[in-house]
Amino acid sequence: MRILVTNDDGIHAPGLLAAERIARTLSDDVWVVAPETDQSGVSHSLSLNDPLRLREVGEQRYAVRGTPTDCVIMAVKHIMAGEGPNLVISGVNRGQNVAEDVGYSGTIAGAMEGTILGIPSVALSQAYGPESRHTVPYETAEAHAPGVIRTILEEGLRPGSLININFPNRSPDQVRGIQVTAQGRRDQEILTIDPRHDGRGNPYYWIAFVRNRHRIENGTDLWALSEGYVSVTPLEINMTDEPTMTRLAAVFAGDRAPGS
Predict the structure, then answer these.
(1) Looking at residue 80, what is its pLDDT?
(2) How far apart (Å, rounded) are the C-alpha atoms in residues 258 and 250?
(3) How many CB atoms lie within 10 A of CB 203?
(4) Which residues touch 187 (CB under 8 Å, ≥6 apart)?
(5) Do residues 63 and 101 lie in contact, with contact meaning Cβ atoms separated by under 8 Å?
(6) At CA 38, angle to CA 188 and CA 202, rounded to 5?
(7) SS3 for the chain, per residue?
(8) Rounded to 5 degrees, what are φ and ψ at 102?
(9) Buried-most residue among 33, 42, 153, 165 (CB within 10 A)?
(10) Beta-sheet pairing, 121-126 with 161-167
(11) Which segments of the chain have a pLDDT < 70?
(12) Helix axis angle, 138-155 relative to 14-24, nearest 10°?
């Protein structure tokens, strides 16, 4: 099996080394193609107006001045052209990617692009807390990811589907098990704007998050991590809202009056 490893935290991120070690438990043929710099929060963006710069940093190891999506495309269409990967591993992200994070995450976008290109793909993220901010427990992801990935590959992935895997902020031996979950939803009051002033008195702003308690639904990725489980969430590339599509189709076909 040939494995492509990418991420959004950049080529020098500790989580990328963790992902590479995870990949090497599954195969000896591992390629790393990751962003030159931190690309957290870029989602599924492409570099269309800037050239992609490619730098070889080691054997089967490359840095791309671009986004995680750029990296996967560059790997499959250029670096590994002719014999592409059989699996894409994106991560291990520094911090969880659950609930609304899915829409912002460059880590998940790397797996999305692999899926679009027809390659089984997984996104890996390691949760941490205030006490482990500077000592993110990547060893938890390293201990549990290989078995989870093997099981997923043995079961098979449906075309257009990828797997978002999050590891709890616990040591490996404290993980309670694995839960297959739905994407959760947070209270959006956590999102705020933090206004500040620079040394010259000019205003600037940070997008910030405030800690607050919010209701967590059982069976979601948020719930699994809070309870100490590995969260395994299947995601789809096709974002069509089929119930609304059916309802609107009836409206526009004239089968019933709007609002009825």
Answers:
(1) 97
(2) 9
(3) 8
(4) 212, 214, 215
(5) no
(6) 65
(7) CEEEEECCCCCCCHHHHHHHHHHHCCCCEEEEEEECCCCCCCCCCCCCCCCCCEEEEECCEEEECCCHHHHHHHHHHHHCCCCCCCEEEEEEEECCCCCCHHHHCHHHHHHHHHHHCCCCEEEEEECCCHHHCCCCCHHHHHHHHHHHHHHHHHHCCCCCEEEEEEECCCCHHHCCCEEECECCCCCHHHEEEEEEECCCCCEEEEEEECCCCCCCCCCEHHHHHHCCCEEEEEEECCCCCHHHHHHHHHHHCCCCCCCC
(8) -55, -40
(9) 33
(10) parallel
(11) 188-189, 211-214, 255-260
(12) 40
Residues 6+ apart with CB under 8 A from 105: 8, 40, 41, 43, 93, 97, 123, 125
- Asked if the peptide bond before residue 33 counts as cis, ω within 30 degrees of 0, the response is no
102 close to 183: Cβ distance less than 8 angstroms: yes
Tokens 């030159």 belong to: 36
Task: Report the C-alpha gap between 12 and 182 in whole angstroms.
Answer: 32
Residue carrying the six token digits 């000592």: 135
Q: Give the predicted TM-score (pTM) of the model.
A: 0.94
Residue identified by tokens 């107006």 is 49
d(CA 39, CA 65): 10
Interval 149-190: pLDDT, tens = 999 999 999 999 999 999 999 999 999 999 999 999 987 667
Chain CA centroid to CA 139, Å: 18
